[in-house]
Structure formats: structure tokens, C-alpha cells
Amino acid sequence: MNIRTFPGTAALSAILTLTTVAAPADAAGLLKPVNSTLPELSIREHHVNVVLEHSYAVTTVEQVFHNPSPQALEAIYSFPVPDHAAVGEFTYWIDGQPVTGEVIKKQQARTLYEQEKQAGHEAALVEQDSYKTFDISVTPVQANSDVRIKLVYIQPAHLDSGVGRYVYPLEDGGVDTQKNAFWSRNEVVDEKFSFNMRLASGYPIDSIRLPQHSQAAIQQIAPNQWQVSMASQVGALPQTVLSSAPSADQPPEAAQPLPAEQISTAGIVPAASLDQDIVVYWRHSQNLPGTLDLISYKQSDTTPGTFMMTLTPGDDLGVLQGGRDWVFVLDVSGSMQGKYSTLVEGVRQGLTKLQPDDRFKVVLFNNAATDFSGGFKPATAEVITPLLNQLEQYQPGSGTDLYSGLAQGLKGLNTDRSTAMILVTDGVANLGVTERKRFLELLEKADVRLFTFVMGNSANRPLLNSMTEVSNGFAISVSNADDIVGQLMLATSKMTHQAMRDVELKIDGGRVTDLTPEQINSLYRGEQLTVLGHYRQPGPVQISLTGKVGGQQRHYTTEIILPGESLLHPELERIWAFATLENMQAKMDYLEEDDSSNEDTKQAMTDLAIQYDLVTDYTSMLIVRDEVFKQLNIERNNQQRVANENNARQQRLQQPVTSQRADSQKPMFNQSHHRASLGGGGSGAIGHWILLLIGALLLIQYRNRRRTS
């Protein structure tokens, strides 16, 4: 396996070369009941087109399904829900003509779909299965014929320490045991697969890479615009994009993917299976200043506007000094059998990197939690060696009692020492306490920062994200196709540097309302702050960001202009609405289950989702014939919204890409402090080595687990 690294990540190359990328047990694809005698539908074509501009990405997926049998069948396609993604369009071709879906209440949509299905009429439905999957049902797929569908979703895009990351999720994760016991999946694309991504940035980009798809073609197509492409076709031969060689004065590990403008190879692969995420990284040039960027949408002077404001501070957060306590809470459920020796070796190498003034604690959990280290221990050979000998004898097994693992990890904390807890899991809490409120209450009472590695697309992201928020920590999603070293580097630079606490953002002017997030809490090294909201009055507004770093107060200010008519980014309305819905859901989950206000919140969320045409836990997108829409008195609001968004995207494609910086006249951040960048010095050796080594070895287990199952 050939490892490409960003600067500063070579230390783990030897470890990571031991891993192989294996197909997971479950992936995106067509579903079929396990014991069904009906023939299996096939995926004839699967095409992905991504437009990522500035602060958000629009992903369009077109598929052609084929029914090889002599009878009409229903197609059910399932794929993982992307992080913070809002489905805005679903189109089904009926009689050769595209018909766009409309959002209605979930149960109503399912009832109408079943009615049309029983009548033999064309219908399609998109439903969200909580945080796990989007499920698309299409009926009927006529005998020996094809159907064509298109799905479009929108999601925010963020930079972290100068590195951007986009994931097209395909790996299911395999944690929904009930669903996987009932359904089998066909994830093979029989004829044609393509992935095309247009990346537009107002800031210089050094390099672009796909960690597990070296065959991808990367090409600069215009100033500040790049194209990432790959495709499969029956009978095609693979072509590989080469990496740049290091210069004479650089070590071999300094090899980099070629800069985008130097690559033009066609990325062709011989076959395609929808069983591996597609992860794209891009890295901005170093030494860029801290900035405030702004994009907006406002139809006219009489309508409210929607804005997305992105603050990228300069790197003025110092390295933490003094000893720290490290609590590792590790999932050792039954699926870990066969990989446990790898975990022990990772712990062994990690503990040897601790410094004398640090302490460590190791907690293992499955159906119960074990304080395996017996409290905090000094990092001496006399303590580490016998502990590791005992650890080697441990036998993994059983289910996942996450609450017990966390509770055990929080015991015995020293309030005079800074404590970081690292939780690594790819599953869900399925034993013991499972209510989200109980988890949040547990962490609110503890003086600890929780850092979570969310491995896999089916992990309970809402729960894990909420826990990190209440503890002022952070969560990092990790894909099986990720640049794991890069992800771990991003995390450790935050854990070993100061953070800004008690962060508050004020906007004076513009009649600004409906801000999301409502509360910010903390900002870590390299993090961007993205805020969405509405405004009624165009013109100048004052922006103020305050927070505490150590015992000192920090204050940053600037003035920006909220524009009048602004028509190029209508997708912002859906992005704002979906972020607001996520915040409402988080608040509702924190309330007691019997709280009557939950019903009012659910109704408010349903109304908001219908207003902005979004698929949620409470709404679905239905497609029927135009005349059926009329009979059901379902207005074609989404059809008009989709047309508006498509027109705006076409206009953006025809315009040169420019910076969206809004604070050029009065920089908000000290220009002598450049943005934090990956590999840019100062990361502490303590947390850096522990998390890199243990995290990398845990990932090996994770991949081996997928391969074994």
C-alpha cells in the first residue's frame, strides 16, 4: 500500500503500510429481502457530480436501475446519510420526462406512495432513517427495463487548519443489525460509474488528493477552479495519477500529490462497486491571513436575506504547558476478536511516548466497563510493562455499553490537572443506558474535554457530537477511505494547544435574526466558525468576536457590508433551515422523553422542513405524476425552488471565481498571525504521539473488522 502524506506525518507511514483497504460488509446499494426468491435488480449506471464552491457543496447523484425479470418490481436503494446534508431535490423520469418531488409529512408520503404502488402507478419516495441512511423507493421498474432517478443534496464545507475534506459516503457501517439481517445488498455498478467534482476556491490551493483513489484525474480548468474525475466502464484499463517526487534536499516521505494544475490524466478504473467512501482533500497555501468571508442570498429589497459568514482566525493559540491526564476509552466489543493483539501493540508504543509529568488511564468497554489500568498511572517502564502483559491476556467480546465506558473513564479525575478523554468507537450504544440526555448530563458534570473519533457512516453521530459539544471538545468523523494520519494530526494540534473558551459573537446592525448556532462555546486551533442567519436591512454591520484564552480576554472586531439584492446562492436558505432543524432536534433530545413540549417542537420542525423542502425524520419527498399532485392538492413549491437553484448554479459556472472575503478594508484578525496549517510546527509531542499511534492502530482494527465480517 502506497502512503501519501502531508508534511510532518511520516512517522506513522511504516505502521499504516501494514493496513489494507477492504470492502466493508455493508455498503450503499439496492436492497433485497434476504430470503426473497425474486430476481435481483441491478445498478446499470451511477454518476456523481459535485460542485464545491467556497463554503458549501452540492452533490448530484444520477442512477439507472435495471429489472432483468419478466415481471415489474420495486427498487429500494439505500445509502448513508452524509454529515449535515440536506436533500433538496429528487427527480424520477416518468414517460421519459423528469418529475421533481415535493416534501410532505412522512407518514402521509408513505401512505400515498403505497396507494400509487398498489394501483400500479409510477411513484417514488425518499425517506430518512434517523441518522443512518437515506432510503429511496421507486415503483414500478417494468419487466426487462430501466428507471432513471436523480438525487441532490447540499451540505456545508469547512476547512480545518488549512485542509478541506469532502466525503461521498458509500460504506454503510454495518451497525444496524436489524436492517442488515433482513436485507441483502447489490452494490455493483454493471456498466458505467463516474465521479466528477468541481472545486472552486477564492484562496490558493497547494494540492488535491484522494487517499484511496489514486486513479483519479486532477486538473486545473481555470484560475481558482479544479476538476477531480474518475470513471469506470466495462472493459476499461486503469490509469494512475502519479505523485510528485521529493527534491534532492527533501526526505522520501515528502512526496506529494501533484499540484492540480499539473495533472491531466484521465482517471479510468475497470470496475465499480459502491462499497468504499470517496474522500477528497485539498490544502490551501500556507501563510494565508485570518479572514471573515461572506456569501448571501436576497431576492429583493422587500424580502429577508440569508447569509453564511465564515470566520477563519489567525493562529494565535499557544502550546499548552505542564503535565496532563489522558483517559483512553476503547471499544472492545465482540467484533474486536482477531485484532486484539494489534490494539495491545498500539497501546504499548503509545505509552512509551508519554513524558514523566503526564499520567494515563485505560478503560475498556463492551457489555460492561473495565478500568484496566486501575486508575491513573505514571508513565514509567515499571508500570507500563506489567500492565501491557495483562492487557495481552484480555479477551474481547459482547455488546456495546458506551455509557458504562464513559462513566468509568470519568472516575478519579484530579481537578488540579487538565484532562482529555479520547473515545474511539464505530458503533452505537445498544446496552445499558441509551438515552441521549443521560449521556449529556454525565459529561456536563465532569471537568473534562471529550475528543471523539467517529468511525464509520453508521455510528450514532448525533449522540457523539452532542457529547463533545457539552464538554467543549470536538468530534472528528473518520472514513475507512480517509487520510487517517492527516485526521489524527488535525486532532492532536487542537489537544496540545490552547483553545478559546466562552466564545461570543455579536452582530450590530442589519436587523439580523435567527442565528445558528445559537451558542458557540469553544474554538480550537485551526477551526473555522461558520454562522448562518437572516437579515432585513442591507448595509454596514459591526462584527465582534470575544473569548478567553487561558486567563486573558481576546476581542476581534470588523465592519462588513450585507448586500441588497444577491441572487447567486439560493441554496443558503436550505442550509440555514437544515442547521436550524439540527439545533432544534438536539434541544428536543436533551429534554425528558415525556416532556409535552416535544410535540410542539416536532410540529415546528415539520413545518420548517416543508417550508424549505427538506427530507428529515418527520418529512419525506414524494414523486407522483403531475396530475396526481393536482388531485392531491400538493403545490409544486419544490419544483420552483429547484429551478431557481439550478439557474443560479449555471450562472455561477459562467463567472470567474473570486474571493468572498468581507473584511479586506478592516481585517478582523491580526495579519501577523497566519492561519493554522497542518504540519506547521508547535504540536506537542505528548498527545501527538499517543493519539497518532493508538488511533492508527485502532483504525487497523476497524478495517480488519470490516474485512473479517
Automatic annotation (TrEMBL):
PROSITE patterns: VIT, VWFA. Residues 640-671 have a biased composition (Polar residues). Residues 27-155 form the VIT domain. Keywords: Membrane, Signal, Transmembrane, Transmembrane helix. Residues 640-676 are annotated as: Disordered. Residues 1-27 form the signal peptide. The chain crosses the membrane at residues 678-700. Residues 325-495 form the VWFA domain. This is VWA domain-containing protein.
